[in-house]
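To the structural biology subgroup,

Please find below the input and predicted structure for Protein FAM200C-like, which we are adding to the shared reference set this quarter. The sequence is reproduced verbatim from the submission form. If anyone notices a discrepancy with their own records, reply to this email rather than editing the shared folder directly, so we keep one authoritative version.
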Amino acid sequence: MPTMLEQRINEPGRLEAHLKAKHKDQINSNLNYFQIVKKNYEKRETLKSLVIAHNININRTLEASYQISLLIAKSGKNHTIGEQLIKPSISTLVKTVSGKDDQDVKTMPLSNNTVSRRIDEMSKYVEIQLIEKLKTRLFLVQMDESTLRDSEAVLSKYVRYIDNNDFAEEILFCTSLKKQHYR
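Predicted structure (tokenized):
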């Protein structure tokens, strides 16, 4: 049901009076002109559409930051590689391929602290997933003591279980053992 305002606007006499009073130069325009004006008005950028587009870009940039942090963790490289090499490389690629400067790459968080924090967040999530899997499966636990370089002793706990008809093995726990001097 149309509102009172819509009813008043849709009255032919009032619409014609508005056209004569406010848009004298458009009185002789055909219907096609007004349809184009209406379509352009409906497609215009509004504050809401700009905010939504900006939030979508921020979410994509954030997701890319997590994915790059995961790649850095898997590579075992220093976390500063994100800002020193990866970010400039992506920026150069975007600039070369698209021919324009991409602000999203410049604002992508890849600092040493950010990459470290993202890796920690993702590892917590992996730990939670592993614990949830172990709640529903039979598993075996194995402890192992190893010596690393510089005579550092490490205690590790592994868990083995069957996942999708395959054997899986994960590190459940790993810590450095402190030296104790015995007399």
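Summary notes: DSSP finds seven helices and three strands in the chain. Residues 3 and 9 are 10 Å apart (CA to CA).

Regards,
Lab coordination
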